[in-house]
Amino acid sequence: MSVSSVLSILFMIGGFFFFFTATAGLLRFPDFYTRLHATGKGDTLAVLLALIGISIHEGITLNALKILLIAVFMFLAQPTATHAISKAGMRRGLEPWTKKEEEQ
Amino acid sequence: MVMTTFFLGIGVGLCILVFFVLYRVVFGPGIFNRVAAISAIGTKTLVILLIIGYLYDRIDMFVDISMVYALLNFIGTLAVAKYLEMEGERK
Description:
The complex is a heterodimer of chains A (about 100) and B (about 90). With about 100 residues, chain A is mainly α. Helices cover about 85% and strands about 0% of the residues of chain A. The termini of chain A are far apart. Chain B has one domain (about 1-90). At the A-B interface, α1, α2 and α3 of A face α1, α2 and α3 of B.
């Protein structure tokens, strides 16, 4: 086991953990906006960690550079997409979930 | 050998997570939950594609497929969001 393998395994496990938490949030949260909050941030961090892990294992090649390029692109694109969906929901008139509604 | 087994395990775990997210796509109340869940599935698929490329030892080919998948996922989500927004203003 070289150092790069251990680093790659650590990054991949971190990525899988954040994918798992994002999925749990998407399944368990009560409302559209809270679900989007879970997946928007969790998936961004998870895909970043997983791609960095794969590129560390790949070494210094052109493919590793391309994988890092995908990571940078996802880091820009995922929050933009999340913002677009949530703005569309707001314009469409989806009410955010509050505790008061639950008690009534 | 250890790394191949590890990557295989991560890939299988991600496939199981995709099936859990598929519940939100099928039963999720309203179109917005479905769009958000499809976006999450696309993100997971991107990582699964790279892992498949590593397992087949053809990562030079699969990295391009993965890049195109990321672009299409982003553009598709933006297009659907824009369409739904226009639909809301018309009412």
